[in-house]
Amino acid sequence: MLEIFFKLKEHNTDVRTEIIAGLTTFMTMAYILAVNPDIMSATGMDKSALFTATALSAMVATLVMALVAKLPFALAPGMGLNAFFAFTVVLGMGYPWEMALTAVFIEGLIFIALTFLNVREAIINAIPMSIKNAVSVGIGLFIAFIGLKGAGVIVKSDATLVSLGDMGNHGVWVAFIGIVVSAVMLARNKKGALLAGIFAATLVGIPLGVTHVDNLNLFSAPPSLSPILFKFDFSKIFTTDMAVVLFTFLFIDMFDTVGTLVGVGAKAGLLDEKGRLPRAKKALLADAVGTTFGAMIGTSTVTTFVESAAGVAEGGRTGLTSLTVAGFFLLSLFLSPLFLMIPTAATAPALVMVGFFMLSPIRNIDLEDATEALPAFVTFLMMPLTYSISEGIVFGMLTYVVVKILSGKYKDVSPVMAVISLIFILKFII
After folding, report:
1. For the chain, how big is the Rg over CA atoms in Å?
2. Cα dist. 99→104, 105, 140, 334, 336 in Å?
3. Which residues contact 121 (CB under 8 A, 6 or more apart)?
4. 171, 347 in Cβ contact below 8 A?
5. Is residue 413 within 8 Å of residue 404, measured between CB atoms?
6. CA-CA distance, 356 to 182, in Å (whole number)?
7. Pairwise CA distance, residues 274 & 250, whole Å
């Protein structure tokens, strides 16, 4: 049944590979179950209810991705978007969290409409192949940076922005051990290398005090959603402030999702000869449905997670990978202490190794043609430096359009690319 529905043989995969890939993806993104409630609760929202909302919204959105789009991508409330929700809209601008949830809900409805009108798919198809390959590379550098930062290998520095962390920090060594375990298994062509690295790092972290197992209760009932369920405030729906908040949510989510789908899709070999992602419209629908549903039950924008690349690196190629992820999010509602026990230092090795895997599409970029290579370089350089997939795409596409036009190759710039670039410029001006 699974073979027929997901066409596993057609994608050169099997049930075991897909399940391992799904578990790997889940392990690398399970941190969202702890981080999202922590960030969102700064607004005064109930933290326990936020945990349930985070798990449920991730499960529903990823389930749509699995059964409708049949692609190996997982979704959950997005990092960055939740911070904008809490610290800018609510704590910074002073609006109640109910108003911010309303903006997220409207965003989801707009995305559903844009998906059916093929607007978002048109944007994906308009991105040049060199930029698409660069997005994959940029995401690799970005998530490797996230992994190293989470493990304490890289820390903030007033003098140099970032610097090497404290090498006496046990978390750093836990991460290095995990990387070594994964690397050795990869070198020996063993399956489950990334997952093995996570497990090894988690176990090593116990005696080092990085993995905390004190008073570990495996089973717990999911907290009630009632404090944040359907808490909308439509009183400011037609104000300028609502328009600004809504536009920001739309912009960041639009290009974060597009970037992740294109970048991870390129690495998985899912793009066709024209650089198009199969069933992209359905994948974007999963994102839109997840965002709408997430707002209804009380959480910020749901988006496709870049950590999906971890599952792809383990061989995940179909919706069975994302179906597995959805199943673990359901399980996490009842086993939350177990999943939250895994420290950031233990998931860091998987992110670093995936960053390495994501570099391969750079071979498909024509480095002899400056009008192709320079925009690609700007794209993957800006992602880790701005800590944003969407900003990397923005700068890369603007560079592409400007360089192509000024070098006389304006025919390479499609009308859609030109319009998108004008929107980017207006965003910076506004």
Report:
1. 21
2. 9, 10, 35, 30, 29
3. 115, 280, 281, 284
4. no
5. yes
6. 12
7. 27
Strands (E) across 273-350 are located at 302-304
Q: What is the mean pLDDT of residues 47-67?
A: 95
Of 414, 412, 398, 364, the residue nearest 134 (C-alpha): 364
The amino acid sitting at 22 is: G
Closest CA to 194 of 203, 175, 181: 181
Residue 315 in any domain: the answer is yes
Rounded to 5 degrees, φ, ψ at 316 are -65, 130
What percentage of the chain's residues is helix, strand, coil (to nearest 5)?
70, 5, 30
Q: Is 229 domain-assigned?
A: no
The domain containing residue 136 runs over which residues? 2-215+236-429
Q: Residue 23 — pLDDT band, cuts 50, 70, 90? A: very high
pLDDT tens digit sequence for 85-130:
888 788 887 889 999 999 999 999 998 998 888 887 787 778 888 8
164's enclosing H/E stretch is: strand 161-164
Tokens representing 230?
């359907």
Alpha-carbon distances of 291 from 253, 286, 324, 334, rounded to whole Å: 10, 9, 20, 23
Burial level of 11, CB count in 10 A (0-12/13-18/19+)? buried
Whether 228 is covered by a domain: the verdict is no
First to last CA, the chain: 52
Q: Is residue 223 part of a domain?
A: no
**CB-CB contact of 249 with 287 (8 Å):** no
Measured in whole angstroms, the distance separating CA 345 from the mean position of its chain's CA atoms is 19
Q: Specify the number of domains making up the chain.
A: 1
Structure tokens at 26: 């889940």
Q: Which element (helix H / strand E) includes 138? A: helix 129-151
